[in-house]
Write a structure and sequence with these properties.
Number of strands: 4
Order of helices and strands: EHEHEE
Shape: globular
Number of helices: 2
Length: 82
Amino acid sequence: MNASLQQLDVRKVPFWRRLDAVLAACDRLEAGEALELLVDIDPSPLRSYLDATRQPAFAWEVLEGGPDTWRVRLYRTGSGTA
């Protein structure tokens, strides 16, 4: 499932630009590609947002669960709604 893995570290991106940066990176993924995301806040709200707006486009795997750094891998599983 890891044909292509991209990485995005948004820990130094201004907070008000993070969502746009993550969504743009997710929208560029093709089916079978993955994005490894590093953040310094709990990304659970992002998962809820992706589930609501881009289903069934992503699977989610927590690789590191805080408290200072969260690392998650998002897999593009379908075309979804961009």
